[in-house]
Specification:
Blueprint: E1 5-7, H1 12-17, E2 21-23, H2 29-34, E3 42-45, E4 54-55, E5 60-63, H3 68-73, H4 79-86, H5 91-96, H6 99-103, H7 155-161, E6 165-170, E7 173-178, H8 179-182, E8 201-207, E9 216-221, E10 232-241, E11 244-253, E12 260-261, H9 263-269, H10 276-283, H11 298-315
Parallel strand pairs: 1-3, 2-3
Antiparallel strand pairs: 4-5, 5-8, 6-7, 6-8, 9-10, 10-11, 11-12
Helix pairs in contact: 4-7, 9-10, 10-11
């Protein structure tokens, strides 16, 4: 790790005035600094900022510095969010990692994390060796000729499914952005991963009230039971009345360059009977536009099966 200067402001205004890279739990940033993927000269420790608190009174509001384990254990947090958090990383890392930091984490693409290899996210124009190389863990949706890296966060998938928003602060003021709009697919500029502007800080995550999201889940398929990133995941919330789906929220992870909302699947579910056949028909729409690579074509069928599994998990006791 290269030398750097560290400051630790105690107010949001002071943090916004301090030049450097923000540090919260450090579970991603410190790793990348050790690998020389990121080499900030100035690091701003924001752990003393008043950006904590969880409010479930009307929807859900989460301070950006709340730790993942505390959110998962908090009464009233939607099950899909709590489960996504509990299936992330290890207990030790969940105790350290902040929700804001988790949403800002970088891809786990091995080429991105190896500074001896080209990577368009690290050095635009250098190439993407994953396209013709080892790409089993990579994306089939939202890709481009510049980048095929998957987005790493589990809870971001659940939050996108529930129309979450971010509150952002800067020296110029505050603004709100939908999390689904915050993330950027690579296109021609894979180095631009999100809509956070220079000097901005995530202060809060806000999830609108959705009473029927009490029937929700997160299914994560991975190579081993714990401490592993998703090959595919599905965040699903379902409103079922009289044996039919009234409304649905569905998003996928592990298969796309950003948390991937699936409006076509949601539309197909609305009004359909809550049956395995209807679930399979709706899930068949999920891979639309997929571009499999040499090593990850299995993700097309895995995506459909994962969504069906999540839907069945929510309805098996009610049919």
């Amino acid at each position: 790790m290269r030398p750097f200067e560290l400051t630790a402001p105690t107010t949001v205004d002071a943090a916004l005035a301090a030049p450097g890279t923000f540090l919260a739990g450090g579970t991603t940033l410190v790793d990348l600094m050790k690998l020389d993927v990121l080499t900030p000269q100035h690091v701003v420790d924001i752990n003393d900022l008043p950006l904590r608190g969880i409010d479930t009174g009307d929807g859900l509001r989460i301070g950006a510095l709340e730790r993942m384990s505390d959110i998962a254990a908090h009464p009233g947090v939607y099950p899909v969010i709590a489960r996504a958090l509990l299936l992330s990383a290890s207990q030790q890392l969940r105790n350290m990692a902040s929700i804001g930091g988790n949403l800002m984490q970088r891809t786990r693409c091995s080429y991105f994390r190896d500074v001896a290899t080209p990577c368009n996210r690290r050095h635009p124009g250098s190439g993407c060796p994953a396209i013709s190389g080892t790409n089993r863990m990579h994306a089939v949706l939202g890709t481009s000729e510049q980048c095929v890296a998957t987005h790493a966060s589990d809870v971001a998938v659940a939050l996108v499914a529930l129309d979450a928003e971010l509150r952002l602060a800067s020296a110029e003021g505050t603004r709100t952005v939908a999390l689904a709009d915050f993330y950027r697919t690579p296109g021609e500029t894979p180095e631009v991963e999100h809509d956070l502007r220079p000097g901005e800080l995530i202060t809060e995550v806000v999830v609108p009230r959705l009473d029927w999201a009490s029937r929700s889940t997160y299914v994560k398929v991975r190579d081993r039971q714990s401490y592993e990133f998703a090959l595919c995941s599905a965040a699903v919330a379902l409103d079922v009345q009289d044996g039919h789906v009234v409304d649905a929220r569905v998003a996928a992870g592990g298969v796309a360059t950003v948390p991937w909302r699936l409006p076509a699947v949601e539309a197909a579910l609305r009004g359909a009977p809550a049956t395995p056949a209807a679930f399979e028909q709706a899930a068949s729409l999920a891979p639309e536009g997929a571009k499999p690579l040499s090593g990850n074509g299995f993700k097309v069928s895995l995506l459909k099966r994962t969504i069906v599994r999540a839907l069945l998990e929510l309805t098996e006791g009610s049919r």
